[in-house]
Amino acid sequence: MINKQQIILEAKEKLKQLGFRKNKNYWYRYDNEWICCFCIQGSQWDRENYYINIGMANRRESGSFPTELNWLWRHRCRVDNEELNIPLVAALEQLEEYYKNFCIDKDMNRFLKENNAKWVVQLWDIG
Q: Do 7 and 50 touch, CB atoms closer than 8 A?
């Protein structure tokens, strides 16, 4: 089993390759006004254990290095309903999936603003 210090070293190298900047146990990737956030949080019960949290923040509202309290949304990474000591690769897959969905929503919001949309209705099948 990999411990907290080992995952931090692994994350430091991999996240740097993906364009993230490190600040303490947080990593940030900037996309104009948006910040993609990644955090390795130590367990309060055992110093060797960790959790990985991902999220997004708005740079204007939260500054360049927001803590989790200032993220717009936050997700604790899980594998098979387990959230303690998950592999980095699983957390990165979840990060990209959430970020991709966020970008789609962001693109839609920009399109609606550019076209002066007044009303947006979402339809779905309830049955």
A: yes
